């Protein structure tokens, strides 16, 4: 069979070109340390590598989120530890202030110390995290959580709890909201905590409930009721010092007066001798909201310590206020303890998730390496073989292309 010169050159050139292409591709693989240079090299392997790469990227992102949450929780734990110390110190002051031998100067000293503790507590309540955001204001991270008022402090944040995704199906909070830590102090099982002064000479009792007609006027303030010589009584908002209802006549067996959305009912009670003794001049009664925050509780006891405290009724009011403050601080410490427990549990969970995430990362990278990484020994052997084959093809082409009748002339 005769083979034309054009066929020899076309076939030889094509073969040499293919060999050069294979050699060039092997060189690229060695340079990139990848056996898959484009999806066409291995469509199935490329698809698997893409899925694994995406999973690995998500795992890395979740690890970054865990570091962010861990930093915020550690900052929160530091603030909560400081709050715990302050509340324990305040509790010690309240217990010490219960001594019956204190002078007005001693009470003023305790009040000053408690004011300092409250200012420090407000500073911790308005703490910021490492990003400059307020920790205890919910979603309102640029809003100062608490602003001091004459009654204690007002919460300015919201009830939202910021969370970050720390695992594919798990979110963790960066901190708690202010009311969960500083509020929710249940002074009683009902809406209001009402009591008679232990120095009262009458045997009347008091109860308080939210008014069904004017609930929107509730203030959350404390109130005192004092009977005067004319058989009437005045209601004072002790949080502001203003008399809000004066000259109310008392009629046996009971009388109800509505003040700031509260129905306050005074009733005769049976005395020790089995007789009914109505309220007497100078008898006092106290009404407090049933759900306070620690700032209001501290303000109440500070105001009580600053009061004259000279009469038996004054002293009885102070002892009752101290007992209430002691109980409220205990409940506030419970709130802080619960928050610290939650923070500790979250930090422990993050450590576990970090270990799992690290193991996943190793597995992802190992699987990706099996698909993409080049076997250097095999690649070098192939490269050497391709170089030799190309050289042989080039020499063969030169020899074959020289086989012509012109060489015999």
From TrEMBL:
Q: Which InterPro entries match?
A: Flagell_FlgL (IPR013384), Flagellin (IPR001492), Flagellin_C (IPR046358), Flagellin_C_sub2 (IPR042187), Flagellin_N (IPR001029)
Please list every transmembrane segment annotated in the UniProt record, as residue ranges: none
Its GO CC terms? Answer: bacterial-type flagellum hook; extracellular region
For this UniProt entry, the molecular function terms from Gene Ontology, in alphabetical order, are:
structural molecule activity
The cross-references to Pfam families, in alphabetical order and at most eight, read: Flagellin_C, Flagellin_N
Q: Which GO terms describe its biological process?
A: bacterial-type flagellum-dependent cell motility
Q: List each copy of the Flagellin N-terminal domain by range.
A: 3-141
Chief localisation class: other
Q: Which family does it belong to?
A: Belongs to the bacterial flagellin family.
Q: From the Swiss-Prot or TrEMBL record, give the protein name.
A: Flagellar hook-associated protein FlgL
UniProt lists the gene as flgL
